[in-house]
């Protein structure tokens, strides 16, 4: 009986898992196999990090009776971690954050909020052990394929672009947001580079962190606007903020700050809107 | 014009081509308005014999046995004495269509245009009622439309039919030759095009007249048979063994129809007329009225409501740009229940507007 729209085949969350699985495999190759020096822990670090985070999220899901909520959050956070992250810092902090988020029921996007706090306070390096100990130069093709500096499993731009096309086939994915945000970033970057005669335009455009945030974090349904017009505005401001934070602060940490700021703005806006409604209710009551 | 939604139909559900009849119910539930009775300075008592009066028309002959309230509506319960054919009297022909329409509470206001549109569209893909009316009452519908055209001095009549409703198109095309002022306009199979508010975007309804199938059938009854509508076709379909179109008395209870035609089936929840959303009714709560066209049996209410994920699809699909999440523009809601249909969290958003 068709009296409800059921999305055919896999739903959006499952497709995000599939995409993340591909990214984790690439991360395992780039930050595990490629830097293998006889240390098995280093070899499997990307896998251990992501799987342990996922399992932690899964246990929390079962504990708090949620459906794939915290496991997805934990996985999305873990893939962004710097390759040389210490487990002692990451896992307990992630656990505390997810539990806090559950009990305080924060309205802000917990993924970007955690990443913002983590990156701002620790200011980690995104080099893996090989990159940190030797001089490396990555070309355009390398960067595009994923052999560049970045989070443990989020360096492959090509996988992320392919994932975007895959997500776009899903009914509940807000596919316009990444495109508008990226084009805003691209146009503002081009204008800025033309005006300042900067020659690193392509390298700046192929920033894997920007791609990850635009494709996986910005369109997250719960933390993005509902109306189409507001979605376009949200994407536009995000693109501009990413440009500003990337160019004037840090190309790797900047995008996270930008997305955190736009999410903060959205949360404050929602709060104000709710308050305004509350006040209007009191006004009606007084009348 | 907003792009409308195309809804797929479960092809396994096929309605039987034969019309079943259920014209002798034991009881009839006749809706009444207290104000109406006071205005007429008339009190209806238990035991009153009722068939036809100035303010009440009963589809059967019988005595009032009770007054009851179902779903906040008042009903006179009339026990059928099966003497309807003897007692039904004929009246003189009414003069104009406007007079006839007044008798059955259809308001016809003068309009500038010269076209009469016949709304033969239906939004519910499981509802075969309109098609069955078109197949079995083709000449009656066309006669009535032509009579209205002459009375209102209009130039032409346009039949609005869905491109997917090929049976109706063929049925009308067979006899249209004798009605030179009547033509067919094919409309796209999108949801909810049959709604007057949506149809406005496709045709000029401000200046022209529009009648739907049941209004035309009702007008035909009053114009040609001099009596209000007492029977109508309904489609009973959904999760049942034998979906079919049944001719029933207006005012009879669905419970009685179900016990007659589906005695061995456990039917609890149904959707009346619409096929989307979660506003199901219990079988006992449904009384067939003039506008009841389709009864959809729903037995799979497994899906639990989850918290809103703010996907915004309800706002995106709404043909009237309502925002059921933030309660914006809800005054424009036409109760199409597309928001219910699309919501991945199974939230009953349609009830806000409906």
Structure description:
- The complex is a heterodimer of chains A (287) and B (354).
- Chain A has 287 residues and is mainly α.
- Chain A has one domain (12-286): Ammonium transporter fold (Orthogonal Bundle), CATH 1.10.3430.
- Chain A is 69% helix and 0% strand.
- In chain A, helix 3 (45-63) packs antiparallel against helix 4 and helix 13 (228-248) crosses helix 14 (254-286).
- The radius of gyration of chain A is 20 Å and the shape is globular.
- The model of chain A has no long low-confidence stretch (mean pLDDT 88).
- With 354 residues, chain B is of the alpha/beta class.
- Chain B has three domains: 19-88 and 228-298, no CATH class; 97-224, NADH-ubiquinone oxidoreductase 51kDa subunit (Rossmann fold), CATH 3.40.50; 313-353, no CATH class.
- Helix content of chain B is 25%, strand content 23%.
- Chain B contains twelve helices and 14 strands.
- Chain B has helices at 34-39, 84-87, 97-103, 129-136, 138-151, 166-175, 196-199, 213-224, 254-261, 313-317, 338-342, 350-353; strands at residues 19-22, 27-31, 49-52, 57-70, 73-80, 115-119, 156-162, 182-187, 209-212, 231-238, 244-249, 269-272, 281-282, 294-298.
- In chain B, the strands form three sheets. Chain B has a six-stranded mixed sheet with strand order 1-11-10-14-12-13, covered by helices on one side.
- In chain B, strand 10 and strand 11 (244-249) form a beta hairpin.
- In chain B, helix 4 runs parallel beside helix 6 (166-175) and helix 5 crosses helix 8 (213-224).
- The longest helix of chain B has 14 residues, at 138-151.
- The two termini of chain B are 23 Å apart.
- Chain A binds chain B through residues 1-5, 7, 11, 67, 171-172, 174, 221-228, 231, 273, and chain B through 7-10, 13, 238-239, 271, 275-277, 296, 298, 300, 303, 306, 309-313, 315-316, 323, 325-326, 340-342, 344, 346.
């Amino acid at each position: 009986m068709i009296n409800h729209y059921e999305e055919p085949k896999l739903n959006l969350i499952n497709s995000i898992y599939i995409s993340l699985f591909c990214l984790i495999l690439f991360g395992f190759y780039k930050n595990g196999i490629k830097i293998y020096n006889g240390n098995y822990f280093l070899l499997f670090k990307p896998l251990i990090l992501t799987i342990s985070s996922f399992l932690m999220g899964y246990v929390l899901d079962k504990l708090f009776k949620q459906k794939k909520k915290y496991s997805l959050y934990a996985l999305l956070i873990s893939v962004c971690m710097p390759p040389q992250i210490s487990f002692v810092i990451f896992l307990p902090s992630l656990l505390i954050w997810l539990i806090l988020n559950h009990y305080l029921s924060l309205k802000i996007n917990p993924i970007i909020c955690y990443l913002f706090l983590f990156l701002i306070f620790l200011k980690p390096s995104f080099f893996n052990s090989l990159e940190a100990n030797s001089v490396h130069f990555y070309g355009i093709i390398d960067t595009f394929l994923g052999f560049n500096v970045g989070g443990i499993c989020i360096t492959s731009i090509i996988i992320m672009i392919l994932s975007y096309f895959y997500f776009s086939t899903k009914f509940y994915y807000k596919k316009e947001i990444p495109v508008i945000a990226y084009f805003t970033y691209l146009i503002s970057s081009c204008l800025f580079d033309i005006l300042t005669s900067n020659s690193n335009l392509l390298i700046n455009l192929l920033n894997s962190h920007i791609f990850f945030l635009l494709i996986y974090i910005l369109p997250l349904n719960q933390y993005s606007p509902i109306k189409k017009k507001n979605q376009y505005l949200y994407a536009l401001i995000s693109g501009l903020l990413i440009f500003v934070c990337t160019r004037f602060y840090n190309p790797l940490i900047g995008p996270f700050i930008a997305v955190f700021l736009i999410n903060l703005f959205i949360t404050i806006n929602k709060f104000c809107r709710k308050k305004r409604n509350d006040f209007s209710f009191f006004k009606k009551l007084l009348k | 014009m907003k792009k409308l939604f195309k809804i797929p139909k479960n092809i396994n559900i096929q309605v039987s081509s034969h019309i079943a009849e259920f014209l002798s119910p034991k009881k009839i539930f006749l809706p009444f308005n207290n104000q109406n009775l006071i205005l007429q300075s008339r009190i209806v008592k238990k035991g009153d014999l009722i068939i036809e009066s100035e303010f009440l028309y009963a589809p059967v002959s019988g005595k009032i046995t009770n007054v009851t309230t179902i779903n906040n509506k008042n009903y006179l319960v009339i026990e059928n004495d099966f003497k309807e054919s003897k007692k039904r009297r004929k009246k003189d022909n009414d003069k104009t269509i406007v007079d006839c329409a007044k008798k059955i509470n259809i308001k016809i206001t003068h309009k500038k245009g010269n076209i009469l549109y016949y709304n033969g569209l239906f939004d519910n893909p499981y509802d075969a009622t309109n098609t069955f009316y078109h197949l079995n009452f083709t000449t009656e519908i066309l006669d009535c439309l032509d009579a209205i055209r002459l009375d209102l001095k209009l130039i032409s009549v346009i039949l609005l039919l869905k491109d997917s409703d090929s049976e109706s198109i063929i049925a009308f095309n067979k006899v249209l030759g004798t009605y030179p002022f009547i033509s067919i306009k094919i409309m796209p199979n999108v949801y909810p095009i049959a709604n007057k508010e949506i149809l406005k975007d496709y045709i000029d309804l401000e200046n022209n007249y529009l009648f739907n199938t049941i209004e035309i059938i009702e007008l035909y009854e009053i114009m040609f048979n001099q009596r209000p509508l007492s029977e109508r076709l309904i489609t009973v379909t959904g999760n049942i063994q034998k979906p079919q179109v049944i001719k029933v008395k207006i005012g009879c209870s669905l419970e009685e129809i179900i016990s007659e035609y589906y005695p061995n089936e456990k039917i609890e929840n149904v959707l009346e007329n619409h096929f989307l959303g979660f506003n199901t009714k219990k079988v006992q709560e449904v009384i067939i009225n003039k506008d009841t066209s389709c009864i959809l049996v729903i037995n799979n209410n497994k899906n639990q409501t989850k918290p809103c994920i703010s996907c915004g699809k309800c706002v995106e699909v709404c043909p009237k740009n309502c925002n059921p999440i933030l309660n914006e523009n809800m005054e424009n809601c036409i109760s199409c229940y597309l928001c219910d249909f699309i919501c991945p969290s199974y939230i009953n958003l349609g009830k806000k507007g409906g």
